Amino acid sequence: MASGPRRNIPSNLRIPPTTVEWTVTKTDSYDTKMGTPLGSPTLAASTAKFRNKVPAQMQRCIPLYMACVIVLFIILNFDIFYSIPSPLGVFRKEKEIVSTPSRFSTFPQKIWQTWKVDPLNFEDRDLITSRTWVNKNPGMRYEVLTDDNELAFVEEHFGAGSAINRPDIVRFYKSINLHIIKADLLRYMIMYAQGGVYADIDVEALRPVHRFIPERYDEHDIDLIVGVEIDQPEFSDHPILGKKSKSFCQWTIIAKPHQPVMLHLIEHIMVWLKAEAKKQKVALGDIELTFDQVISGTGPSAFTGALLEQMRKNHRGGKVTWDLFHNLDESRVVGRVLVLNVEAFCAGQGHSDSGNHDSRGALVKHHYHASNWPSKHPRYRHPAYGQVEDCNWNVECVRLWDENVAEWDKLSEEEKKLKIEQAKKPDLGL
User: Fold this and answer.
1) Same domain, 180 and 115
2) Across-strand partners of 386?
3) How many CA atoms lie within 13 A of 169 on its CB side?
4) pLDDT (tens digit, 9 = 90+) per residue, 288-300?
5) Residues 115 and 149 sit within 8 Å (Cβ to Cβ)
6) CA-CA distance, 349 to 351, in Å (whole number)?
7) Model-level pTM?
8) Are the beta carbons of 217 and 333 closer than 8 angstroms?
């Protein structure tokens, strides 16, 4: 292309050629065939000394500077990043919880107690023991049935139209006035209708309930958990101690709901007490019972007999007798009933090789401060030698008591009076 005529530019308007340059940067979009750039030319303004040098250094250093800033930020805020759980981790933990249920999960997660008043009005002694169940088992529900609300529970679960639908049981319960009979009956009704953990108000929890099932057992094979209370079979033939010499504890019971043994106990009590009322020719509300009648009719002896019968029905390994639980060192499952040794629920009794509450195997501690019912039900007391139960299953003491009682009728009236006077002195015993 021919250039046009050259024009003279005044010297004061000329731009020095070394000050500004126009450069065309070749890009990926440059059309080499047509010889023309597809993008706009870039303008680079710099001095001749630092042209293209400073931008290149900055391009190399900026990533390094940014990396240092990010690393420093992470270090200064590491605790924040660490505390934020990964979504995958959350889902993984939830999956683990669902797939590996905790111990005791097949039993109802509820602790039951019964008492005269509600927990807001507990005396200090009752508050202390009851708190141990809540403190040791914070994930479980807790409820106390009182003299004011127990009937509402009975009617709700056993009344006409309920799932159990046994209005005859409700009527029977309403007709009873003896507190110990109602207390025994109510614990069996709770365990049958709802299940869970039952403990007398004066029983302290030493361990959480998930420790009640040894790890070697599959809890799906267990419907009931009980402990040995009295293991003195050598007194089986004793006229007074015999029926009480082999028994399971009933101040702590763990059960899944609707166990046949509980309903059997309820029905047994109904039949027995009606027969006793007929024998005494009084209404159910006016019946009177001795200490031994309570023990054998609704208490530990009745509880033990019903359990052994239930075990026999469920057990496939032969005859079930007390021999299976005599001198029991470790727990065993018989007929879907987990039987714990005497140390578990009844440590510190001073008999039956019950050990003490400081042992690892002790699970609960019975304080007996609510056990004043025996004073309202007479038991045999010899005028000179007292109660044989005071021997606390000591073999030599019981032998001496038996001998003295056997010789009593051979004494003269003067000798009998002398023995009675001696018995009144507190420093003399058997």
Assistant:
1) yes
2) 382
3) 29
4) 999 999 999 999 9
5) no
6) 5
7) 0.76
8) yes
